[in-house]
Specification:
Elements lengths: L11 E3 L2 E7 L19 E5 L1 E2 L7 H4 L4 E8 L9 E6 L2 E2 L1 E6 L2 E7 L5 E4 L10 E8 L10 E5 L10 E5 L8 E2 L3 E6 L3 E12 L2 E11 L7 E7 L5 E6 L2 E6 L13 E9 L2 E10 L4 E4 L2 E4 L2 E2 L2 E5 L13 H14 L3 E3 L7 H10 L2 E5 L22 H18 L5 E8 L6 H17 L5 E5 L15 E4 L14 H16 L3 E5 L18 H17 L3 E7 L22 H12 L2
Parallel strand pairs: 26-27, 26-33, 27-28, 28-29, 29-30, 30-31, 31-32, 32-33
Antiparallel strand pairs: 1-15, 2-3, 2-5, 4-14, 5-11, 6-10, 6-15, 7-14, 8-9, 8-11, 12-13, 16-17, 17-20, 18-19, 18-21, 21-22, 23-24, 24-25
Length: about 575
C-alpha cells in the first residue's frame, strides 16, 4: 500500500478535524441502519484522537462496543474524471465505513490503514457524508486478543460486563490516524517494491512497479532516481528493473540520506501518473553474533515506546511526534521498537528522515496469562481463527512498511506463551509468512520466556528478551542483577548462537521521589538498575542492543517505567542514558 503523496497527478484532501460523534449505548445502530440518514444527537469529536479522554462522561470513556463518527465534505468538480480513494489511517479495533449511506468497506485490526475507491458513491453538486462505525471489542480472534467478562452474581447488576485483556496499556479506541481523500488517474501506479543492495561504493535499487486500471499493460513506465540536489543519478524504462548509482550515499543513523524514486506512467509521450517514493539505500544482515547495517556492526540504543499522550490518547499528533524525535536525538538513541503494534506511518516517515532504526512489531501482545496452568494456545483461545488474522495483519504490515529504510527488523509478537508446545506450530506459520513476503530483514519474537523453556528460539534470526531482574523477581535486590542477567544471557547464546537484544528492562519510577540508598520507585533506583544491566551488556559481545522500557510514562493500570514523564520531561535516568549513549558507538 502506497502512502498518499501529492504530485502533479494526485491530490489530497484531509478530512481530519472535528467530526460528529455518537455513542451507540445498546450497540444497535448498525442493525437499525443509522448510517442511512445523518446522525442525530451528536457531540463534537476530534479526529485523529482516542475518544476516551475527550469528554467528562465516564460512560463514553468506558463504553464497550460501537461508536459512530460522521462528517460532511465537498468534492471539487475537478475530480470528476479521477479515481477517488478514501483512506482511514487506523480505526481501533474494527470499522465499517459508509459514504452517502452506502457501506463501502469494513476492516478488522486497529493499527493499520485501509482504503477503498469511492468514485461511484460521490456527489459533485451537493455535500457528501462519510460515516464510520468503530468497535473497540477485543476477543480471542483479534490482535491484541481479549475477552468479555459477563457477571452473573448478586454483587453486579443484570447484564454487567467488562472488557478484559492481558496487555499492559489502556485499550484506547477511536479513529487514531488521519482520514483522507486522495485522487489518482483511472489507470494508476498501485504499488512499488524496492530492495536495495550495496557493492563497494555502488548503490543498487531493485524495483518492481504494479499498475492497475484500464489498458494498464499499454502504459510505458519510466523510473528515475533523483538525489537531494535534484540531480538525476539513474533512470530505467519498465515495470521492473535494476538501478545503479555509482559513489552512492548510504542510509544510516549518522547519514539518513534519501533519494527520490520517481515513477511515471506514460502514454503517447504524456505523463499520466506520477508517484515519488523516498528510498534509502541500505542493507541489514545477521552475521555470526553481529547485527550488520551496511556491512558494519550496529549496536541498538533506544526504547520500547507507546503511541500515548495526555488527552489525545493514541491519536497521532505531529507536535508530539516531532518532540519525541527531538528527545531521541538529544538522548543519543538510534532506535526504538513499535511496542506493541504498528505505529502511524507518519512516524516511520520521520524515522526515515531522522535516521532512527525501527523494530516493527505486529499487535500480538497479551497472548500470555503468566500463569502456566492456563493454556493460551488452545481451541477456545489463541486458535486457527487468531492465526488467520495474525497472518493477515503480517501481510498488511509488510505491504505498508516494506519500503521504509528505517525498518530493520520485524517482530511478530511480544511476550507470548512461547513455552507452550503449540506455540511452535503457530509461530512457525507466522514467521514463514514474514520470510515469504520479505527476505531482506531479520525476524524476531520478543520473549518473556526463559531460554530452556521457549519453543520458538530456532525460528527467529535475533533473540529479543524482556527482563526485569530486581523488579518482578527478587524485588529490590539490586545486588543480584549482574549475576542473574549474565547467567541467563549466556544461556540464550549457548542454546541458539544468535545475537541478542535486551528489548525491555527498567524500573517503575515516580518523578521527584528520591532515596539514598536507592529504594524501589525512586529515581535513584531506576538509575542504579540501568547501570547494573549495562555492565553486563558491555561484557557480552553477542548483545547487540539495549531498549529501555519505557521511553515515556503512558496510560495503564500501573506502570511508570518511563525515562521521561508522560509530558516528556526527563527523569534522572534520562541524563544517565544520554551520557552513555552519546559516548557509545
Amino acid at each position: 500500500m502506497l502512502y498518499p503523496r501529492e504530485t502533479k497527478s494526485r491530490e489530497i484532501k484531509d478530512l481530519s478535524g472535528i467530526w460528529k460523534f455518537k455513542l451507540d449505548k445498546e450497540n444497535k445502530g448498525y442493525e437499525e441502519k443509522w448510517y442511512l440518514e445523518p446522525l442525530k444527537e451528536t457531540i463534537p469529536m476530534p479526529v485523529p484522537a482516542s475518544y476516551n479522554d475527550i469528554t467528562q462522561d465516564p460512560e463514553i470513556r468506558d463504553h464497550i462496543g460501537d461508536v459512530w463518527y460522521e462528517r460532511n465534505f465537498w468534492v471539487s468538480s475537478a475530480w470528476v474524471n479521477k479515481r477517488i480513494v478514501l483512506r482511514v489511517g487506523s480505526a481501533t479495533h474494527k470499522a465499517k465505513v459508509f459514504v452517502n449511506g452506502k457501506e463501502v468497506i469494513e476492516h478488522k485490526g486497529g493499527f493499520l490503514p485501509f482504503e477503498v475507491e469511492i468514485s461511484k458513491y460521490i456527489n459533485f453538486d451537493v455535500e457528501n457524508r462519510v460515516t464510520i462505525l468503530v468497535n473497540n471489542v477485543l476477543d480471542w480472534t483479534c490482535l491484541p486478543p481479549g475477552f468479555i467478562k459477563n457477571y452473573n452474581d448478586p454483587f453486579h447488576p443484570s447484564g454487567y460486563r467488562t472488557q478484559e485483556y492481558l496487555f499492559d496499556f489502556l485499550n484506547y479506541a477511536g479513529i487514531h490516524r488521519p482520514v483522507i481523500l486522495y485522487t489518482t488517474p483511472k489507470t494508476y501506479i498501485s504499488d512499488i517494491t524496492v530492495i536495495t543492495e550495496i557493492q563497494d561504493k555502488k548503490g543498487i535499487i531493485n524495483y518492481e512497479i504494479e499498475i492497475e486500471g484500464q489498458e494498464c499493460d499499454k502504459k510505458e513506465v519510466r523510473v528515475t532516481v533523483v538525489d537531494k540536489e535534484g540531480k538525476k543519478v539513474a533512470e530505467n524504462i519498465g515495470k521492473s528493473g535494476i538501478l545503479e548509482i555509482s559513489d552512492a550515499q548510504f542510509w544510516e543513523p549518522d547519514n539518513p540520506y534519501l533519494y527520490a524514486l520517481k515513477v511515471e506512467t506514460i502514454e503517447d509521450g504524456v505523463v499520466e501518473d506520477l508517484y515519488t517514493l523516498p528510498v534509502g539505500i541500505r542493507t541489514v544482515k545477521i552475521e555470526g553474533n553481529k547485527l550488520l547495517l551496511n556491512n558494519k556492526p550496529i549496536y541498538l540504543k533506544g526504547f520500547g515506546k507507546h503511541e500515548d499522550t495526555d488527552i489525545r490518547g493514541k491519536g497521532y499528533d505531529p507536535v508530539i511526534a516531532v518532540k519525541d524525535f527531538n528527545l531521541l536525538k538529544w538522548i543519543g538513541a538510534n532506535s526504538f521498537r513499535t511496542s506493541h503494534y504498528p505505529y502511524a506511518e507518519e512516524i516511520l516517515n520521520l524515522a526515515d528522515e531522522q535516521g532512527i532504526l525501527i523494530i516493527d512489531e505486529a499487535p500480538a501482545v497479551g497472548m500470555n496469562f503468566f500463569n502456566k496452568n492456563e493454556k493460551v494456545f488452545c481451541k477456545d483461545r489463541v486458535n486457527e481463527e487468531t492465526l488467520k488474522h495474525h497472518i493477515q495483519v503480517i501481510r498488511e504490515l509488510i505491504a505498508r512498511d516494506k519500503n521504509h529504510p528505517c525498518v530493520i527488523m520485524w517482530s511478530v509478537a511480544n511476550e507470548a506463551a512461547t513455552y507452550e508446545e503449540e506455540a511452535y506450530g503457530y509461530f512457525k506459520k507466522v514467521v514463514d509468512e514474514v520470510k515469504k513476503l520479505d527476505s531482506t530483514r531479520p525476524v524476531t519474537i520478543v520473549e518473556s520466556s526463559f531460554p530452556d523453556e521457549t519453543k520458538v528460539g530456532n525460528l527467529v534470526d535475533v533473540i529479543c528478551v524482556n527482563r526485569y531482574y530486581s523488579w518482578y523477581t527478587d524485588c529490590g535486590k539490586l545486588d543480584l542483577i549482574e549475576f542473574q542477567l549474565e547467567k541467563e544471557l549466556k544461556r540464550w547464546y549457548e542454546l541458539f548462537k544468535k545475537p541478542i537484544i535486551v528489548s525491555e528492562y527498567g524500573a517503575d519510577t515516580i518523578a521527584g521521589f528520591h532515596s539514598d540508598p536507592p529504594v524501589m520507585f525512586s529515581e535513584e533506583y531506576q538509575c542504579e538498575m540501568l547501570e547494573r544491566f549495562h555492565r553486563v551488556f558491555d561484557r557480552l559481545d553477542f548483545v547487540v542492543g539495549e531498549h529501555v522500557w519505557n521511553f515515556a510514562d503512558f496510560a495503564t493500570k500501573g506502570n511508570r517505567k518511563g525515562v521521561f514523564t508522560r509530558q516528556r520531561q526527563p527523569k534522572m535516568a534520562a541524563l544517565l542514558l544520554k551520557k552513555r549513549w552519546c559516548e557509545k558507538k
